[in-house]
Amino acid sequence: MEARHLRYALALAEHGHFGRAAHALGIAQPPLSKQIADLERETGARLFDRTRQGVFPTAAGEAFLARARRALEEMTAATVDASRAARGETGRLRLGFIASALLDPLPDVVGRFGRERPDVRLELHEMASGRSATALIAGELDVAVTLGPPRGAGAEHLVSVPVGHDHLIAAVSRAHPYAGQASVSVDQLRRQPLIVAAGEDEPAVAAVLRSLLGEDAAALDGATVARDVHTIIGLAACGVGVGLGPSRMLAVPRPGIRFCEVTPRTMLPDLVLSFADCDRSPVLSAFLGTVRNNCPDVGTALDRRLGHT
């Protein structure tokens, strides 16, 4: 029994006449009569009464047609679902990210992806770079945004591209002596209580700060430790000290806070987007398409890494 047999039976029931049903189906009447007869032999029941007034479903036919209608509806839905899944319109995307990526670029990328693919289930996990890299390599994430590229065993099987470049800036309260300055020097930072981020990603940033301030920088050794960039900004607003963090903090304007450039300009590790080289998931491809649309430079780098022209 094939789907066409179900369609033939439903058409015959609708038109009540072999000739009209055959015309609606675009086939000749004799093949339709033969297919209905074959269907009745296969089911072992007479599905239609043939009368001078027309062709009418029997009780067995009514039962068969009810199931046939639902079966065809399910087959149509299955085709639609398969097509949508192949286009990345349904499914699941597991994204791991560090907190500062929520300043930029994730809000625009994730927001746009959610609007364009509302039926994709987004699973968002804030986690330190080392943990998300491990989860990505283990197949527990589909994509990760980390501070610097993932490292360790298995990282060679990942595709990684920078999605954000940062340099060091300072955040101070509006009552702070540096609030009116466009920039602060390293010597000025050494004379101030500092606020820096903690967490598993801190070693990479701490190495940059120690290189900038000097290995014996007492200001850094006695710095107030914050959980993330939002806490750095909040503590700076309280007048606790000078907050040091990535330039994407500029995306969080807050009353009572002033931002200053740090001279000399000091680059911080890039934000890096990574995914498994062997991942051919349509949902991941759709997400990368959104990244391309929002971040043209990232799209170019992706194409180079993936060997696209």
UniProtKB/TrEMBL annotation:
Q: Name one GO molecular function term.
A: DNA-binding transcription factor activity
Task: Provide this UniProt record's keywords sorted from A to Z.
Answer: DNA-binding, Transcription, Transcription regulation
Does Transcription appear among the keywords?
yes
GO cellular component terms attached to this protein's record: protein-DNA complex
| InterPro entries per the UniProt record, alphabetical | LysR_HTH_N, LysR_subst-bd, WH-like_DNA-bd_sf, WH_DNA-bd_sf
Q: Does the keyword Ligase apply?
A: no
Q: Which CDD domains match?
A: PBP2_LTTR_aromatics_like
- Which residue ranges does the record assign to the HTH lysR-type domain? 1-58
- PANTHER family associated with the record: HTH-TYPE TRANSCRIPTIONAL REGULATOR CYNR (PTHR30346:SF28), TRANSCRIPTIONAL DUAL REGULATOR HCAR-RELATED (PTHR30346)
- Family recorded in the similarity comment: Belongs to the LysR transcriptional regulatory family.
Mind telling me what this protein is named? Answer: LysR family transcriptional regulator
Organism (species): Streptomyces broussonetiae
